[in-house]
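FIELD: query
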Amino acid sequence: MLLNRRRFMALPLTALPSLALAQGTGHPFPAAGRRAWADAMPRLGIALMGGENEADRLARFDGYRALLEKTFEIPVRVYPAGDYAGVMQAFAAKQVEIASLGSAAYAGAWIDTKGGVEPLVVPVQEDGSKGYLAVMVARADSGITDLAGMQGKALAWADPNSTSGYLMPRAALRRQGIAPETYFARTGFAGGHEQAVVAVLQRQYDACCTWASGQGDEAQGFTRGNLRAMVEKGMLTMSDLRIVWRSEPIVTGPITVRADLPAALKADLLAFFLALPSAYPEIYRQISRGEGAGYVPARHEDYQIFIDLRREEAAARRRRE
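FIELD: result
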């Protein structure tokens, strides 16, 4: 079994009002009812990425799960994975149909399944952009104020399959002429974005890489991202941290589906996500981990750079071995 499988009770249907039109978007929310494609689908499985404690992940996604179940009248199950690799393996084994992936994880899943996944929609920022930032954060009292101050220090990566927490920072540092293997005294994987920040706060590492929208109030952790989520959960006060490095904008990872799903199911899911932010804003906010301007259809070609980077990383690892 690749994922920790559990069943969860649906929210009361009275908590999910039926809206025919997503106000202000022009996207009609799908009418509730069983579809013809449901005969070929015993259930829909949603994989949840790691990087956050399991109880919080399940609470955040339960309204979303219940809404899918109510809308399409089919059982929907949520499967939390221990790490990014678990979600990628679940797609490869056809255990799940839907997951929100980072760009690097999407690239990995696409490679592992030989094109067996495809991007459905991608979140849009308040200014209409489809990007976010990788940020390196250190404790505010550490005396580290910039990347130069991290030379000879300990750095935590979030996860080997994380875009902002590993793949893109490494690529960006190499472009600056910095070899992470020698520039830092020590690096390691924290097991997720939330865990990486906690490790810095607990002085296990001097800094870590995580993700943020880069928009809005920095003192609140920006509009979206791991920092914002930790601030809202009371796990972090931004005055405890200092951002010592920021990446160039990164294309946000897509909500991903299996490529072999019925075309009618993909079309229904596309309509669901395009209308979701206006029809059910609180559910949208929960699964997007903050504010945003909704979703737009995603394109595979926007993620080719991450496929290329993953292949380069794999080749470099083989050379080191």
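FIELD: remark
The longest helix spans residues 54-72.
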